[in-house]
Each structure stands twice: as structure tokens, then as C-alpha cells.
Amino acid sequence: MYVGWSMKTNLITISPDTSIFKAREMMTTHRISHLPVTDGKAHLLGIVTDRDLKQAWASPATTLSVHELTYVLQKLTAANVMTKDVITGTPDMTIERAARIMFDNKIGALPIVKDDRLVGLITTSDLTEILLTALGMSDDSKRLSLLVKDRIGVLAEVGKHMAEAHINIRSVLFVPLRGHADYWQLILRVNQTNFQSAVQVLKEAGFKVVVDYVEDPTPYLET
Predict the structure, then answer these.
(1) Which pairing describes strands 109-114 and 141-149: parallel, antiparallel, or unpaired?
(2) Contact between residue 182 and residue 150 where contact means Cβ atoms under 8 Å apart
(3) How far apart are the C-alpha atoms of 138 and 119, rounded to whole Å?
(4) Which range is the signal sequence, renumbered to this chain (predicted)?
(5) Do the beta carbons of residue 35 and residue 48 sit within 8 Å?
(6) In this predicted model, what pLDDT tens digit does every residue of 152-179 receive, in sequence order?
């Protein structure tokens, strides 16, 4: 999955001379937290976040009167508060690489640039939606877990049993099992109507199936 397939492209942007009052109004109206700043030709100059605006409101508040504060804020524009050294991505970047960049740099949005022009934006909310979709999260599905050794062929083995039982796997996820070296959580999501059958098929195949939280997963480790 690539950023270009998932990014927002119908962007709301502002110019450097947009007042911070207008920027705040736009964020409120459109329910967004990030406003890319461009030169009108899609060249990215910076980005303004809701945090930037909150800091602008708070910074002089302790020393100025209400009248003086309003006067100062009226003079501030996007150019005064925006982040100029913007971390960006590209449409051909993988989703996981974009997530890594955003996590490491503690940013909530990644402007996407191609040929020096802003073409999209992806946010942490977008990444959460992508994750939930990839996990097959829905009201008509249910998950089960197998705590398997890190070994070749385990996924093929599970898939074979499911195929023979005519059970469709909605999604698959491997996650390291913390505290247990060389063990992974193999998380499957299947249709609710097939859930009990899937559990039974896997148990008959010799797997220890986890369907609810257990404080100590040791008894469920594959031997």
C-alpha cells in the first residue's frame, strides 16, 4: 500500500499572509488540524497546525491586556507561526514508511510532494483508518489468535486448514509476543458466522486458540 493511494488530495491550503484568525476559523469549519501554506502555485512554504495557533494565542496572554492582545493577534499571519522546515513524503512512499516518519518525528500530518508541488496530505487519523481497514475490523467479523513459533510455513499451514473447511480469512496480522522471544501472535479475523467453526478446525489441527484476553499467555504457546 502506497501513500498516493490513500492520501487526501482535495486539500484546504492558505497563503503566508492569511491571518491566524482566518486560519483558526478554517480549521474549525472544516474540522481539520493542519493547514499547508503555499504560494498559490502549489509550492509548499510551510504548515500551520492547531498547536501553532494555540501557542500564538497563549504566548503574550500573561503580559498584555485583552485590548492589546487582540491588537497583536490581528497582526499575526500564517507566515509568523508556520513551521517552515516541513518534513514531507512522496506518493510512492509506502504507508509503513510514512507512519515511521510521523512517529519518529512526532508529527500529526505529512504533506506529500511531487515535482516540488504539494499533491496531498496524510494524517495520523488516515493511518488509523488504514490500519483498521487492513485488520478487517467490522461488526460482522471476529478475531482469534494463535501464539506460534517463528517458523517457516506456519501461515501456509493455517491457510490450508481454513481453505479445506471453506472458511474465508478476512485479514491476517503477525505481531511479536512481548516477553516471549521467537514467538508471534498470528491474529486472524473471520466472519462471525464462521468463527466457531474456525476455532474448532484449528484446535483439531493441534493449535491452541486464544479467543479472549488471558493474563498469562504461556499455556497457549505453540510447542
Answers:
(1) unpaired
(2) yes
(3) 31
(4) none
(5) yes
(6) 999 999 999 999 999 999 999 999 999 9
Report how many helices (DSSP H) and strands (DSSP E) the chain contains, helices first. 9, 8
**53: nearest Cα among 31, 81, 34:** 81
pLDDT digits (tens, 9 = 90+) for 182-219: 999 999 999 999 999 999 999 999 999 999 999 999 99
The residue type at 148: V
Give yes or no for a contact between 181 and 170, defined as CB atoms under 8 angstroms apart. Answer: no
Residue ranges of domains in the chain, CATH in brackets: 3-131 (3.10.580.10), 138-220 (3.30.70.260)
Nearest-5° Cα angle at 58, 53 to 63:
145
Cα distance between residue 48 and residue 41, in whole Å: 18
The letter for the amino acid at 164 is E
H helical segments located in the chain:
3-6, 20-30, 50-58, 66-75, 78-81, 95-105, 124-134, 154-164, 195-204
The amino acid that residue 89 corresponds to is G
Length of the chain equals 223
**Given the C-alpha cell 492558505, which residue does it identify?**
14
Please give the grid coordinates belonging to residue 179: 516477553
